[in-house]
Design goal:
By secondary structure, the chain is mainly α. The protein is built from 6 helices and 2 strands, in the order ααββαααα. A two-stranded antiparallel ribbon has the order 1-2. The protein is rod-shaped and about 135 Å long.
């Protein structure tokens, strides 16, 4: 009977405590929420108590690390959201710029066609020349006929070279 009492006391003092620790650890490892691990109850001042205390320290460190990671993920998520918002504003600004550019190009095309129509309807030879360089930017049909030249040869040339080659210096003075 004495041995049975000792075995029963050993079972209560050691085996039951180790079983509780083991079940608690299994329960924790099967869970998915590591942000709030329940601490083990520490009883006594023996090796089993040291084991339970060590588990509690580890679980607190894990909880703190988990909390820090959640905070970091939150900060990074907010940073990404802010970047996405800035990018969306830039994309919208770019889209509006593209629309404005298309509108401007269309107006420029209209103006260019009007200018070309007016220029070609003139009976006198006309050349549009850049200042101060004297580069011919455009000429009308009357100019090409008068100087008997092609537009590709004239445009981009210095008007003085064209006038002097054709011998029509007097036309400029008049």
């Amino acid at each position: 009977a004495g041995l049975a009492a000792i075995l029963l006391a050993l079972r209560f003092m050691i085996v039951n405590r180790l079983t509780r620790i083991s079940r608690h650890m299994v329960s924790v490892t099967q869970g998915t929420d590591y942000s709030s691990i329940d601490p083990l109850k520490v009883e006594g001042d023996d090796e089993i108590s040291v084991l339970a205390s060590s588990f509690n320290v580890l679980s607190e460190r894990l909880r703190k690390k988990y909390s820090d990671l959640e905070e970091e993920v939150g900060e990074r998520t907010q940073s990404i959201k802010n970047s996405n918002e800035r990018l969306a504003h830039e994309v919208e600004r770019y889209r509006r710029s593209q629309e404005a550019l298309k509108t401007s190009e269309a107006k420029l095309q209209e103006t260019s066609m009007f200018y070309r129509t007016v220029l070609d309807s003139m009976q006198d030879p006309v050349a549009i020349v850049s200042a101060p360089g004297g580069e011919i930017l455009s000429v009308n049909s009357a100019f090409l006929e008068f100087y008997q030249m092609e537009s590709a040869v004239v445009v981009g040339e210095d008007y003085r070279d064209i006038i002097c080659e054709s011998g029509a210096e007097g036309a400029l003075a008049g």
